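Notebook entry, structure prediction.
Reason for the run: the old model in the group folder had no record of what sequence produced it. Starting over properly, with the input documented here first.
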Amino acid sequence: MEPAAEPIAPKKVDANVLAENRTVAALERTMMAWIRTDLSLISFGFTMFKFLEIMDQSSGGGMRQNAPRNLGMALIFLGVGTLIMAMIQFRKAIARITSLSNTKPQISISTTAAAGILLVAFAMLLNMWGVWS
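New structure, fully documented this time:
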């Protein structure tokens, strides 16, 4: 029979490091929630624009001339605006954590995703204005 292996003692982890990691993870989850909400607003705005544009064309033009575009743009601008505010809030919170803990967190994947979504939203707006198609 083999002798029982001695248990490995866990490393001591600083409670402040754990608290910082939990806070950063909570900020990332909040940012991802904003991204989901704003992506829904942006995509719904573009969908409403296309849907109402097709409905207007098939019914013979009973709507105001730019009504589908204006509704879609309003929803897209709402999504873009709140996403930009969420990114600013996230950056300020990370800066506060950095100044208090003297450590720099990893590059945020969620803010990178948010920047990509902003680029797509601006491309949608340019498409709606007829500048880029």
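Summary: The chain has a mean pLDDT of 87.
The old model has been moved to the deprecated folder.
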